[in-house]
Amino acid sequence: MNPARLPFAIRALNAGLGALARMGPRLPGLNPEDLLRSARRQTGLENYGSDYFREPLRRLCESLEQDARLSAFGRIIARQDIVRLLRNRLMLEETFRQHPQIADERIVAPVFILGMPRSGTTSMHELMALDPQFRVPLSWETAHPFPPPESASYDTDPRIAKVDRELAQVDKLLPDFRYMHPMGARLPQECVALFAHDFVSMIFDVQFRLTQYQTWLIEQDMTEVFRNHRRWLQLLQWKKPGDTWVLKSPQYLWNIDDMLREYPDARIVQTHRDPVKVAMSIGSLTATLRSLGSEAVDLREVTRQYADLLDYGTRKTMSARAAGRMEASRATDMQFAEFRQDPVAAMHKVYAQLGFTLGPQTAAAMQRFLDEGTATERHGKHHYDIAASGIDLAAERLRFAGYQRAYAIPDEIFGS
To answer: Which residue of 26, 116, 202, 230 lies most exposed, with the fewest beta carbons within 10 A?
Structure first.
């Protein structure tokens, strides 16, 4: 989506704030110390815990200023979201201080759905969220986790309506986005939303052009981020327990070793799809989302960037498997084509390989969810143009040949 196609109100806001900035008043700043002070002032709290997050925060803010081509509206979005994350971080530390027993909560043999973006991971996560034997992080509780969710009010918590209102505004501003990635307060959220509290998350680069930050990010040791990820799960299950966590994020591809160190008993489902189609799809999604906060978006640049990231991530996971760090006995593979053809049958297969039972009532709930059209809408109404994407098909086929051959992944994109 071209920023010029944004709703008139947003274009007018960008123009008005831009004019004011040229006359003298500064637009909202992204100075880390100012953001830290704002969160402290809003919560009345001081303790951010470990200083680990400060360097990632600094790099994020620098990249937002230098790379992101922020519009006035984008600057407002970035500042509000960073302050929200800092508030949550302060409240996490305070809650653990007041209730140290939360650290005794056990996270046992969680299931991690990992795979390239746009390869069926979101749909699989949504289906498994329908099963009462599993606990998933929902969008509303990851965005606003305080006070911690409770079983008695989990389905009626007023934060659900709050997040649905927030997401409805995104739908109005980016009407094309719903066809790429439907959102809802009660839908599962990716772990990138939890990683974001350490400011070591790919979620930021999906929202904004962050060339320097993303280059730095993929090389980072996420040991402490996954340690804090466990703390977030402990907090969320403290008053809303569940038997087994089911978690999802494409970022696991790039940090598979860090994840396995923190969760050595993890069970894994890895989805596979034509990486060229994935690069075009995530490139289109990212360009659409970035248009909300950027003055210029280059689809070709975005698509090439994600082709590089997919190559890096698939090589990392293949290396982990080859070295025996991702044991075959705990890893299940699923082809996107098989999953899309009959999702419920595919889920029976996944459950069996993971050692779970998919009961008839849950299978029926999954089918009803599918019949409502959400998955069909996501995959059926959005189209991609290989010429517009800037993909060099022959070159991409060559560099992904090893990955496609290893998992017998069929091509979805063909030359003219």
So the answer is: 26
Dist. CA 407–CA 90, nearest whole Å: 44
The domains located in the chain, with CATH, are: 107-407 (3.40.50.300)
Closest to 234 (Cα-Cα) out of 50, 93, 147, 107: 107
Give the pair of three-digit tokens for residue 403: 């990955």
CA distance 223 to 374: 35
Degrees to nearest 5, angle at CA 75 with 69 and 77? 125
Torsion of CA 240, 241, 245, 248, to 10 degrees: 0
CA 409 to each of CA 119, 272, 396: distance values in angstroms, whole numbers, following the listed order: 11, 7, 14
Neighbours of 16 (CB within 10 A): 11
Q: Taking the mean position of all CA atoms in its chain, how far away is CA 159?
A: 20
Q: pLDDT tens digits for 111-155? A: 999 999 989 999 999 999 999 999 999 999 999 999 999 999 999
For residue 171, what are the CA distances in angstroms to 141, 165, 201, 257? 20, 10, 23, 36
Contact 30, 57 (CB under 8 A): no
Tokens describing residue 148: 């911690």
Residue ranges in 265-325 assigned as alpha helix (H) = 275-290, 299-322
Please give the pLDDT value at position 18.
56
Structure tokens at 24: 């003298």
Q: Which residues of the chain have pLDDT under 70?
A: 1-27, 174-181, 374-384, 416
Q: What does the buried/exposed string (b/e) look like for 180-203 if buried means 16 or more CB atoms within 10 Å of the residue's CB?
A: bbbbbbebbbbbbbbbbbbbbbbb
Q: Are 310 and 278 in contact (CB under 8 A)?
A: yes
DSSP element (H, E) containing 341: helix 336-341
Half-sphere exposure of 376 (CA within 13 A, CB side): 8
Q: What is the pLDDT of residue 295?
A: 87
Q: What are phi and psi of 248, to 5 degrees?
A: -150, 135
What's 188's DSSP letter? B
The DSSP bridge partners found for residue 72 are none
DSSP state of 138: B
Record the tokens describing residue 9, joined without a space.
Answer: 């109100």
Please check whether residue 364 is in contact with residue 391, taking contact to mean a CB–CB distance below 8 angstroms: no
